């Protein structure tokens, strides 16, 4: 009996060690590279902010799925949503009905990416799309609904809620959102993101609004480039959390505009 | 009085009258000095009388494009026919069915200039025009040239870099 | 007549044989009003583009952006512009319609553009205004201002040149369509429908308005029109249509 108990304890300890080792390994092996830019990149002018994130891991086998994203834009970047509409739907309704439940003028960003699923030893790509809608502010802070849609290898739609956060200089406006774990195919490992592209705002977005009883074209400034660019470029920061507990912080920069 | 007597009387009268007429004519034709100019006649002396000529102008010009501006083609070439020399045409489309033209011909001894209008139509790669021209200005031996209602026609060949051929025919005086 | 038909069929067949697999289909719908021989009239030309899937137009597929269009018009159909005025493409781009002489305006219309962004197809209504451009050696050129306001305020100018054509057509209009940008790093927008009216019908026409003149004779089968299109993805297509002879 004592021998059996000792064997069990040893097995549990070994398992715990393996688990700890796995976490540590994950913390050291997951890498995220982000490339972001303003287009056009004129100081103080409305712009489009786009970013491409590439996920990779030095460890073999399926990667851990993303569970939390927090991203900060450079200090001085404005987010002016006056003139844009608001999606009054809840995340649950958006997930159930789809983007048609939100007015067109509440759409503030798009994205697309490729997820990967390991099925029978092969990594199967699963494209997905993202749409960002402006929701009702909470305590004066911007809230966005994110509609995620994938159709292959499994059909999946979900809605996430992103909230405005602030960071001290050299950062400013930021957003944070949680990503739920999504089961894929029965018996298959969880999917993970290979790469994703996001785009917010544009220099010439405009919507018709009724102003003083008259229909008027209102321009939405949206994302506005800071008026000054620090040496080295505009700093941005992204903190990505993974299901295995790992957390990766990336601090790329957006190049300063070329002097004309 | 006898017939011979009447004749004798007539002869001196005719002679006298003829002599008076000759003297009068001589006085009228003789140039007067400035000091002796008649007080009544102050008109300048007219130039010698010029004989106006009328010709039937029949010209064909082959021109090539030298430049263009908006709806105007500027063309240059050589004219042959009644007169021979360089020819310049400024052809302007004023509507999709009408053109105006300024034509200048430079034969030996002077120049002739005129303006015309014509209806214009395109058929495939060739456009044609047909109308009338008036010539109202000239230099040198054509200094007094004038003529109106001259026939003015031609073609524009797109396939030949918009080269044009023009025909002008009609009576002009100079 | 039969030789002409066979030659025409050969002309249409040959391009299809060398083009890439069709990803976009186009249909054209011309109309003349009034439809009377020799009359001063208005010509409305409508083109519809659709994405193709498995050889069949699919409303779920955004058509590929069209880059070039060659439109063929029946012999004898011509423009009547009493007072020629032109407007340059550069002036249209910089100042819009108000930057052009009123007499240079020859038509108007509308278009619908689409782009696939995220999981949605975003559409935008476009107003079209056609102007007479600077002539190419007395041959008319066109500049078509396409102005969109929402959700993206954008202005592009399409250019066209009129050239002689071969029977049964009289003239052809060669048009180049610039990319219609949407968002950075996102696909250009595609034209889904394009409808332009050149000239004015009698009801609205001023005495010296710019119009189209209906041919003075009509071939058996009606006035023939055609269109050939080249798309951004390298594919090409064509469409034929006829308008009935005046009754």
Present the secondary structure layout.
The complex is a heterotrimer of chains A (260), B (174) and C (247).
Chain A: H1 2-29, E1 30-39, E2 46-57, E3 66-74, E4 78-80, H2 91-97, E5 107-119, E6 122-134, E7 143-150, E8 156-166, E9 171-178, E10 192-200, E11 205-211, E12 214-220, E13 222-224, E14 234-235, E15 237-242, E16 247-250, E17 253-254
Chain B: H1 3-29, E1 54-69, E2 72-81, E3 85-95, E4 98-107, E5 110-123, E6 126-140, E7 147-157, E8 163-173
Antiparallel strand pairs in B: 1-2, 1-8, 2-3, 3-4, 4-5, 5-6, 6-7, 7-8
Chain C: H1 2-18, E1 24-33, E2 40-53, E3 56-57, E4 66-74, E5 78-80, H2 89-95, E6 105-117, E7 120-136, E8 139-148, E9 154-164, E10 169-176, E11 190-198, E12 211-213, E13 223-231, E14 236-243
Antiparallel strand pairs in C: 1-2, 2-3, 2-11, 2-12, 4-10, 4-13, 5-12, 6-7, 6-11, 7-8, 8-9, 9-10, 13-14
Task: Please give a structural write-up.
- The complex is a heterotrimer of chains A (260), B (174) and C (247).
- Chain A has 260 residues and is mainly β.
- Chain A contains 2 helices and 17 strands.
- In chain A, strands 1, 2, 3, 4, 5, 6, 7, 8, 9, 10, 13, 15 and 16 form a 13-stranded antiparallel β-sheet that branches. A two-stranded antiparallel ribbon of chain A has the order 11-12.
- In chain A, strand 5 and strand 6 form a beta hairpin.
- Chain B has 174 residues and is of the alpha+beta class.
- Chain C has 247 residues and is mainly β.
- In chain C, 10% of the residues lie in helices and 51% in strands.
- Chain C is built from 2 helices and 14 strands; from the N terminus they run H-E-E-E-E-E-H-E-E-E-E-E-E-E-E-E.
- Chain C is globular, with a radius of gyration of 18 Å.
- Chains in contact: A-C, B-C.
- Chains A and C meet through strand 5, strand 6 and strand 11 of A and loops of C.
Assembly type: heterotrimer
Average of pLDDT of chain C: 87
Fraction of residues of chain C in helices?
Answer: under 10%
How many β strands of chain C by DSSP?
Answer: 14
Total helical elements of chain C: 2
How far is the N terminus from the C terminus of chain A? 82 Å
Number of domains of chain C: 1
Shape of chain C: globular
State which percent range the strand residues of chain C make up: over 45%
Structural class of chain A: mainly beta
Low-confidence stretches of chain A: 13-27
The coarse overall form of chain A would be globular
